[in-house]
Amino acid sequence: MNMAERNMATNQSYQSDTHTHSVYAPGRLLATLASWFNLTTDRSLSKRLQLSPQVLRGIRSGAIAITPSLLILMAEAAGKTVDELRELLGERRRKARMTCYGRQAMRPALA
After folding, report:
1. How many angstroms separate the CA atoms of 69 and 81, rounded?
2. Among 43, 47, 58, 108, which one is least packed by beta carbons within 10 Å?
């Protein structure tokens, strides 16, 4: 299935949910980004977003979560706000929190 067919299927599956976007749907977000950029394949979308095709595949399958940093990257590439993308995504949390991987990640490396 190519990107255009996937976009149509995604849009049809969420057609009844177009106003509220209450269902978490990363596929809908990727399909909308592709349509904004006039792209037809995940490979071209991955190049536009400067992500690997495997990351997009993982996002579509649900194996990779869309993190706040990914949303920021997508928003900057699309010229949209993070809130607009979160609405498309179906994100319902009031705040998006950046995660920290423990205190070790915050400490400078010792030489």
Report:
1. 13
2. 108
